Amino acid sequence: MLDIVSRSELIKQDLIGWRRHLHSQPELSFKEEKTSAYIKEQLLKMGINDLQTDIAGHGIVATLRGMEGPVIGLRSDIDALPIEEKTSATYASQNKGVMHACGHDAHTAMLLGAAKLLKEEQKAGKLRGTVKFIFQPAEENTDEHGLTGAPYLLRSGAIEDVSKALALHVCPWRKTGEIQVHSGPSMANIDNFSLTIKGTGGHGGYPHQGKDPIWLVSFVLQGIYSLISRKVNPLDVGTISVGEIHGGKAANVIPNSVKLSGTMRSYTKEVRSQLIRELHTVASMVETLGGEYELEIEHGEPALYNDPNLTEVIKQSAKSLYKNIAIYEDPFGMGGEDFGHIAEKIPSSMFFLGCGFEGENERKLHTDNFEIDEEALPIGVAIFVDCVRRMLIL
Protein backbone atom coordinates (compact mmCIF):
# COMPACT_ATOMS: atom_id res chain seq x y z
CA MET A 1 0.00 0.00 0.00
CA LEU A 2 1.31 3.46 -0.90
CA ASP A 3 2.19 5.96 1.81
CA ILE A 4 -0.54 8.25 3.14
CA VAL A 5 0.67 11.37 1.35
CA SER A 6 0.65 9.61 -2.03
CA ARG A 7 -2.74 8.04 -1.40
CA SER A 8 -4.18 11.43 -0.40
CA GLU A 9 -2.84 13.00 -3.59
CA LEU A 10 -4.37 10.19 -5.65
CA ILE A 11 -7.86 11.14 -4.46
CA LYS A 12 -7.35 14.89 -4.92
CA GLN A 13 -9.83 15.07 -7.80
CA ASP A 14 -12.42 13.32 -5.63
CA LEU A 15 -11.77 15.87 -2.88
CA ILE A 16 -12.11 18.76 -5.29
CA GLY A 17 -15.29 17.30 -6.80
CA TRP A 18 -16.92 16.76 -3.40
CA ARG A 19 -15.93 20.18 -2.20
CA ARG A 20 -17.14 22.00 -5.33
CA HIS A 21 -20.47 20.18 -5.34
CA LEU A 22 -21.05 21.12 -1.71
CA HIS A 23 -19.90 24.67 -2.36
CA SER A 24 -22.45 25.10 -5.12
CA GLN A 25 -25.31 23.79 -2.95
CA PRO A 26 -24.88 25.47 0.47
CA GLU A 27 -27.54 25.18 3.16
CA LEU A 28 -28.01 27.10 6.39
CA SER A 29 -27.82 25.70 9.91
CA PHE A 30 -30.49 23.06 10.70
CA LYS A 31 -31.52 23.05 7.01
CA GLU A 32 -28.74 20.83 5.58
CA GLU A 33 -31.11 18.25 4.06
CA LYS A 34 -29.53 17.98 0.58
CA THR A 35 -26.02 18.27 2.02
CA SER A 36 -26.72 15.33 4.34
CA ALA A 37 -28.20 13.25 1.50
CA TYR A 38 -25.09 13.88 -0.62
CA ILE A 39 -22.74 12.88 2.21
CA LYS A 40 -24.73 9.70 2.79
CA GLU A 41 -24.60 8.88 -0.92
CA GLN A 42 -20.80 9.22 -1.01
CA LEU A 43 -20.30 7.13 2.14
CA LEU A 44 -22.45 4.32 0.77
CA LYS A 45 -20.43 4.36 -2.46
CA MET A 46 -17.32 3.75 -0.36
CA GLY A 47 -18.96 0.77 1.30
CA ILE A 48 -19.46 2.56 4.63
CA ASN A 49 -23.02 1.69 5.59
CA ASP A 50 -23.02 1.79 9.40
CA LEU A 51 -24.71 5.18 9.56
CA GLN A 52 -26.60 7.05 12.23
CA THR A 53 -28.59 9.79 10.52
CA ASP A 54 -30.87 12.71 11.38
CA ILE A 55 -28.71 13.73 14.34
CA ALA A 56 -29.45 17.31 15.39
CA GLY A 57 -31.61 17.49 12.31
CA HIS A 58 -29.39 16.40 9.45
CA GLY A 59 -26.18 15.15 11.06
CA ILE A 60 -24.54 11.83 10.23
CA VAL A 61 -22.19 9.67 12.26
CA ALA A 62 -20.58 6.97 10.10
CA THR A 63 -18.82 4.13 11.92
CA LEU A 64 -15.91 2.10 10.57
CA ARG A 65 -15.00 -0.89 12.74
CA GLY A 66 -11.64 -2.62 12.57
CA MET A 67 -9.79 -4.75 15.07
CA GLU A 68 -10.39 -4.40 18.78
CA GLY A 69 -9.19 -1.04 20.00
CA PRO A 70 -10.23 2.49 20.98
CA VAL A 71 -12.94 4.54 19.30
CA ILE A 72 -11.68 7.71 17.61
CA GLY A 73 -13.88 10.55 16.36
CA LEU A 74 -13.15 12.80 13.37
CA ARG A 75 -15.52 15.73 13.02
CA SER A 76 -16.46 18.19 10.29
CA ASP A 77 -19.21 20.80 10.16
CA ILE A 78 -21.56 20.90 7.17
CA ASP A 79 -23.61 24.13 7.28
CA ALA A 80 -23.15 27.39 5.39
CA LEU A 81 -23.65 31.10 6.10
CA PRO A 82 -26.27 33.71 5.10
CA ILE A 83 -23.89 35.52 2.72
CA GLU A 84 -24.38 36.37 -0.96
CA GLU A 85 -21.36 34.96 -2.79
CA LYS A 86 -19.35 37.34 -4.96
CA THR A 87 -16.70 35.12 -6.49
CA SER A 88 -16.32 34.22 -10.14
CA ALA A 89 -15.97 30.50 -9.43
CA THR A 90 -17.72 28.16 -11.88
CA TYR A 91 -18.99 26.27 -8.82
CA ALA A 92 -20.25 29.36 -6.98
CA SER A 93 -23.32 29.08 -4.79
CA GLN A 94 -26.56 28.38 -6.61
CA ASN A 95 -28.59 29.25 -3.51
CA LYS A 96 -29.15 32.99 -3.35
CA GLY A 97 -27.96 34.57 -0.14
CA VAL A 98 -26.26 31.40 1.13
CA MET A 99 -22.54 30.64 0.85
CA HIS A 100 -19.89 28.30 2.20
CA ALA A 101 -17.82 31.24 3.41
CA CYS A 102 -16.21 29.41 6.34
CA GLY A 103 -14.82 26.35 4.58
CA HIS A 104 -17.29 23.76 5.84
CA ASP A 105 -17.52 22.40 2.30
CA ALA A 106 -13.75 21.75 2.45
CA HIS A 107 -13.98 20.25 5.95
CA THR A 108 -16.66 17.83 4.75
CA ALA A 109 -14.70 16.89 1.63
CA MET A 110 -11.58 16.16 3.69
CA LEU A 111 -13.55 14.03 6.15
CA LEU A 112 -14.98 12.07 3.23
CA GLY A 113 -11.41 11.64 1.97
CA ALA A 114 -10.25 10.34 5.34
CA ALA A 115 -13.20 7.93 5.36
CA LYS A 116 -12.25 6.64 1.91
CA LEU A 117 -8.62 5.97 2.85
CA LEU A 118 -9.44 4.43 6.21
CA LYS A 119 -12.06 2.21 4.59
CA GLU A 120 -9.27 0.87 2.35
CA GLU A 121 -7.20 0.13 5.46
CA GLN A 122 -10.14 -1.62 7.10
CA LYS A 123 -10.64 -3.82 4.01
CA ALA A 124 -6.94 -4.69 4.15
CA GLY A 125 -7.28 -5.70 7.82
CA LYS A 126 -5.05 -2.85 9.03
CA LEU A 127 -7.50 -0.73 11.03
CA ARG A 128 -6.61 -1.13 14.72
CA GLY A 129 -9.84 0.08 16.29
CA THR A 130 -12.99 2.01 15.39
CA VAL A 131 -13.34 5.39 13.71
CA LYS A 132 -16.48 7.52 13.81
CA PHE A 133 -16.81 10.14 11.07
CA ILE A 134 -18.93 12.94 12.50
CA PHE A 135 -20.68 15.17 9.97
CA GLN A 136 -22.15 17.77 12.29
CA PRO A 137 -24.83 20.27 11.27
CA ALA A 138 -25.48 23.76 12.61
CA GLU A 139 -22.07 24.94 13.74
CA GLU A 140 -22.70 28.50 12.63
CA ASN A 141 -26.05 29.34 14.18
CA THR A 142 -28.45 28.49 16.99
CA ASP A 143 -32.04 27.32 16.98
CA GLU A 144 -34.96 28.70 18.97
CA HIS A 145 -33.48 27.11 22.09
CA GLY A 146 -30.16 28.90 21.67
CA LEU A 147 -28.27 25.72 20.78
CA THR A 148 -25.94 24.84 17.91
CA GLY A 149 -25.49 21.33 16.53
CA ALA A 150 -22.78 20.04 18.88
CA PRO A 151 -24.91 19.94 22.08
CA TYR A 152 -27.57 17.94 20.21
CA LEU A 153 -24.90 15.60 18.88
CA LEU A 154 -23.70 14.94 22.42
CA ARG A 155 -27.25 14.41 23.69
CA SER A 156 -27.94 11.88 20.93
CA GLY A 157 -25.45 9.41 22.41
CA ALA A 158 -23.97 8.79 18.96
CA ILE A 159 -20.43 9.58 20.14
CA GLU A 160 -20.60 8.60 23.82
CA ASP A 161 -18.10 5.76 23.18
CA VAL A 162 -15.55 8.05 21.50
CA SER A 163 -12.38 8.29 23.59
CA LYS A 164 -10.59 11.00 21.58
CA ALA A 165 -11.71 13.41 18.86
CA LEU A 166 -10.04 15.56 16.21
CA ALA A 167 -11.25 18.33 13.94
CA LEU A 168 -9.66 20.73 11.50
CA HIS A 169 -10.51 24.17 10.15
CA VAL A 170 -9.26 25.81 6.99
CA CYS A 171 -7.06 28.80 7.69
CA PRO A 172 -6.77 31.52 5.01
CA TRP A 173 -4.22 33.55 6.99
CA ARG A 174 -1.76 30.65 6.57
CA LYS A 175 -0.52 29.49 3.17
CA THR A 176 -0.95 25.98 1.84
CA GLY A 177 1.78 23.86 3.41
CA GLU A 178 1.41 25.51 6.81
CA ILE A 179 -0.67 24.61 9.85
CA GLN A 180 -1.51 26.35 13.11
CA VAL A 181 -1.86 24.43 16.37
CA HIS A 182 -2.25 25.35 20.02
CA SER A 183 -2.57 23.51 23.34
CA GLY A 184 -5.12 24.53 25.94
CA PRO A 185 -7.74 27.29 25.44
CA SER A 186 -7.53 28.23 21.77
CA MET A 187 -10.84 29.87 20.87
CA ALA A 188 -13.18 31.86 23.07
CA ASN A 189 -16.15 31.41 25.35
CA ILE A 190 -19.02 33.28 23.71
CA ASP A 191 -21.62 35.20 25.73
CA ASN A 192 -23.93 37.68 24.05
CA PHE A 193 -25.84 40.21 26.11
CA SER A 194 -28.92 42.39 25.75
CA LEU A 195 -29.11 45.32 28.18
CA THR A 196 -32.14 47.57 28.43
CA ILE A 197 -31.77 50.86 30.31
CA LYS A 198 -35.11 52.29 31.43
CA GLY A 199 -35.98 55.89 32.26
CA THR A 200 -39.21 57.86 32.03
CA GLY A 201 -38.69 59.81 28.81
CA GLY A 202 -40.35 63.10 28.02
CA HIS A 203 -40.04 66.28 26.00
CA GLY A 204 -36.57 67.12 24.72
CA GLY A 205 -37.07 70.74 25.83
CA TYR A 206 -37.71 69.69 29.43
CA PRO A 207 -35.13 66.98 30.23
CA HIS A 208 -35.21 67.81 33.95
CA GLN A 209 -38.75 66.47 34.22
CA GLY A 210 -37.81 62.86 33.46
CA LYS A 211 -35.08 60.31 33.69
CA ASP A 212 -33.24 60.35 30.37
CA PRO A 213 -32.11 56.78 29.49
CA ILE A 214 -29.71 58.09 26.82
CA TRP A 215 -27.96 60.13 29.51
CA LEU A 216 -27.91 57.03 31.73
CA VAL A 217 -26.39 54.96 28.91
CA SER A 218 -23.48 57.38 28.61
CA PHE A 219 -22.28 56.27 32.05
CA VAL A 220 -22.94 52.62 31.32
CA LEU A 221 -20.85 52.72 28.15
CA GLN A 222 -17.90 54.21 30.02
CA GLY A 223 -18.19 51.43 32.57
CA ILE A 224 -18.42 48.69 29.94
CA TYR A 225 -15.36 49.91 28.08
CA SER A 226 -13.39 50.13 31.32
CA LEU A 227 -14.06 46.53 32.33
CA ILE A 228 -11.19 44.92 30.47
CA SER A 229 -8.56 47.53 31.34
CA ARG A 230 -9.53 48.02 34.99
CA LYS A 231 -11.29 44.88 36.19
CA VAL A 232 -9.79 41.90 34.31
CA ASN A 233 -6.25 40.75 35.05
CA PRO A 234 -4.05 41.96 32.16
CA LEU A 235 -2.55 38.45 31.96
CA ASP A 236 -5.96 36.93 31.24
CA VAL A 237 -7.75 36.88 27.90
CA GLY A 238 -11.08 38.68 27.69
CA THR A 239 -12.94 41.33 25.75
CA ILE A 240 -16.37 42.96 25.62
CA SER A 241 -17.90 44.91 22.74
CA VAL A 242 -21.17 46.73 22.14
CA GLY A 243 -22.50 46.08 18.65
CA GLU A 244 -25.94 47.72 18.75
CA ILE A 245 -27.57 50.73 20.44
CA HIS A 246 -31.26 51.44 19.85
CA GLY A 247 -33.26 54.25 21.41
CA GLY A 248 -35.53 57.08 20.37
CA LYS A 249 -37.49 57.96 17.26
CA ALA A 250 -37.55 61.75 17.17
CA ALA A 251 -35.06 64.58 17.79
CA ASN A 252 -37.24 66.29 20.40
CA VAL A 253 -38.50 63.23 22.28
CA ILE A 254 -36.56 61.58 25.09
CA PRO A 255 -37.33 57.84 24.88
CA ASN A 256 -38.44 55.65 27.77
CA SER A 257 -35.65 53.15 27.21
CA VAL A 258 -32.44 52.38 25.32
CA LYS A 259 -31.30 48.91 24.37
CA LEU A 260 -27.67 47.81 24.04
CA SER A 261 -26.54 44.51 22.56
CA GLY A 262 -23.04 43.13 22.51
CA THR A 263 -20.72 40.21 23.04
CA MET A 264 -18.22 39.04 25.65
CA ARG A 265 -15.29 36.76 24.83
CA SER A 266 -12.97 34.94 27.22
CA TYR A 267 -10.66 31.93 27.43
CA THR A 268 -11.35 30.68 30.96
CA LYS A 269 -14.46 29.93 33.02
CA GLU A 270 -13.23 32.34 35.69
CA VAL A 271 -12.98 35.33 33.34
CA ARG A 272 -16.28 34.32 31.71
CA SER A 273 -18.04 34.50 35.09
CA GLN A 274 -16.22 37.68 36.06
CA LEU A 275 -17.31 39.56 32.94
CA ILE A 276 -20.95 38.69 33.55
CA ARG A 277 -20.75 39.80 37.19
CA GLU A 278 -19.00 43.05 36.28
CA LEU A 279 -21.54 43.82 33.55
CA HIS A 280 -24.33 43.52 36.14
CA THR A 281 -22.40 45.87 38.43
CA VAL A 282 -21.91 48.44 35.67
CA ALA A 283 -25.56 48.29 34.64
CA SER A 284 -26.75 48.70 38.23
CA MET A 285 -25.19 52.17 38.46
CA VAL A 286 -28.26 53.54 36.65
CA GLU A 287 -30.35 52.72 39.71
CA THR A 288 -28.46 55.30 41.78
CA LEU A 289 -29.35 57.85 39.08
CA GLY A 290 -33.05 57.01 39.08
CA GLY A 291 -33.17 54.50 36.26
CA GLU A 292 -33.72 50.75 35.96
CA TYR A 293 -32.13 48.00 33.91
CA GLU A 294 -32.78 44.52 32.54
CA LEU A 295 -29.85 42.33 31.51
CA GLU A 296 -30.18 39.10 29.54
CA ILE A 297 -27.20 36.84 28.83
CA GLU A 298 -27.20 34.28 26.00
CA HIS A 299 -24.51 31.69 26.69
CA GLY A 300 -22.89 30.46 23.50
CA GLU A 301 -20.02 28.09 22.84
CA PRO A 302 -17.52 27.28 25.56
CA ALA A 303 -13.86 27.98 24.91
CA LEU A 304 -12.22 25.42 22.65
CA TYR A 305 -9.77 23.49 24.83
CA ASN A 306 -7.19 21.56 22.83
CA ASP A 307 -5.84 18.54 24.67
CA PRO A 308 -2.03 18.94 24.85
CA ASN A 309 -1.33 15.26 24.12
CA LEU A 310 -3.54 15.22 21.02
CA THR A 311 -2.10 18.52 19.85
CA GLU A 312 1.34 16.91 20.07
CA VAL A 313 0.04 14.00 17.95
CA ILE A 314 -1.04 16.49 15.28
CA LYS A 315 2.39 18.15 15.29
CA GLN A 316 4.24 14.82 15.10
CA SER A 317 2.00 13.65 12.28
CA ALA A 318 2.43 16.81 10.23
CA LYS A 319 6.23 16.75 10.65
CA SER A 320 6.51 13.08 9.73
CA LEU A 321 4.36 13.44 6.60
CA TYR A 322 5.66 16.79 5.34
CA LYS A 323 9.30 17.47 6.23
CA ASN A 324 9.11 21.13 5.23
CA ILE A 325 5.73 21.97 6.74
CA ALA A 326 5.63 25.18 8.75
CA ILE A 327 3.91 24.74 12.13
CA TYR A 328 2.75 27.89 13.95
CA GLU A 329 1.90 27.48 17.62
CA ASP A 330 -0.57 30.26 18.39
CA PRO A 331 -4.14 30.50 19.74
CA PHE A 332 -6.78 30.67 17.01
CA GLY A 333 -8.33 33.94 18.20
CA MET A 334 -11.47 35.24 19.91
CA GLY A 335 -13.97 33.61 17.57
CA GLY A 336 -16.30 30.85 18.71
CA GLU A 337 -16.29 27.18 17.71
CA ASP A 338 -18.97 24.75 18.82
CA PHE A 339 -16.45 21.89 18.70
CA GLY A 340 -15.71 23.36 22.13
CA HIS A 341 -18.80 21.55 23.44
CA ILE A 342 -17.30 18.24 22.33
CA ALA A 343 -13.87 19.13 23.72
CA GLU A 344 -15.51 19.77 27.13
CA LYS A 345 -16.68 16.15 27.25
CA ILE A 346 -14.06 14.24 25.23
CA PRO A 347 -10.27 14.83 24.98
CA SER A 348 -10.06 16.66 21.67
CA SER A 349 -7.95 18.90 19.50
CA MET A 350 -8.53 21.02 16.42
CA PHE A 351 -5.84 22.28 14.06
CA PHE A 352 -6.00 25.02 11.47
CA LEU A 353 -4.95 24.02 7.95
CA GLY A 354 -3.32 26.67 5.79
CA CYS A 355 -5.28 27.26 2.57
CA GLY A 356 -4.17 30.73 1.51
CA PHE A 357 -2.95 31.39 -2.01
CA GLU A 358 0.73 32.24 -2.40
CA GLY A 359 1.16 35.84 -3.55
CA GLU A 360 -2.49 36.80 -3.01
CA ASN A 361 -4.26 38.81 -0.35
CA GLU A 362 -6.04 36.81 2.31
CA ARG A 363 -9.56 35.66 1.42
CA LYS A 364 -11.00 36.11 4.90
CA LEU A 365 -13.45 33.75 6.58
CA HIS A 366 -17.10 34.88 6.57
CA THR A 367 -16.65 37.20 3.58
CA ASP A 368 -18.40 37.13 0.21
CA ASN A 369 -15.15 36.48 -1.71
CA PHE A 370 -13.82 33.68 0.49
CA GLU A 371 -11.97 30.96 -1.41
CA ILE A 372 -9.37 28.30 -0.64
CA ASP A 373 -6.38 26.83 -2.39
CA GLU A 374 -7.64 23.31 -3.11
CA GLU A 375 -4.05 21.99 -3.01
CA ALA A 376 -4.52 22.03 0.76
CA LEU A 377 -7.23 19.35 0.68
CA PRO A 378 -4.95 16.27 0.41
CA ILE A 379 -2.77 17.66 3.21
CA GLY A 380 -5.73 17.79 5.57
CA VAL A 381 -6.72 14.24 4.64
CA ALA A 382 -3.21 12.87 5.15
CA ILE A 383 -2.86 14.47 8.59
CA PHE A 384 -6.30 13.21 9.63
CA VAL A 385 -5.48 9.62 8.59
CA ASP A 386 -2.00 9.58 10.12
CA CYS A 387 -3.33 11.02 13.38
CA VAL A 388 -5.95 8.26 13.53
CA ARG A 389 -3.23 5.64 13.07
CA ARG A 390 -1.22 7.12 15.92
CA MET A 391 -4.23 7.56 18.23
CA LEU A 392 -5.39 3.98 17.73
CA ILE A 393 -2.13 2.59 19.09
CA LEU A 394 -1.62 5.07 21.96
UniProtKB/TrEMBL annotation:
GO MF, any single term: N-acetyldiaminopimelate deacetylase activity
Cofactor annotation: Mn(2+)
Ranges of residues in domain Peptidase M20 dimerisation: 189-283
GO process annotations (BP): diaminopimelate biosynthetic process
InterPro entries linked: Amidohydrolase (IPR017439), Bact_exopeptidase_dim_dom (IPR036264), Peptidase_M20 (IPR002933), Peptidase_M20_dimer (IPR011650)
Protein origin, superkingdom: Bacteria
Manganese listed as a keyword: yes
Keyword terms, alphabetized: Hydrolase, Manganese, Metal-binding
Cofactor: how and how many bound: The Mn(2+) ion enhances activity.
Amino acids binding Mn(2+): 102, 104, 140, 169, 366
Record's keyword annotation contains Metal-binding: yes
Protein name per its UniProtKB record: Peptidase M20
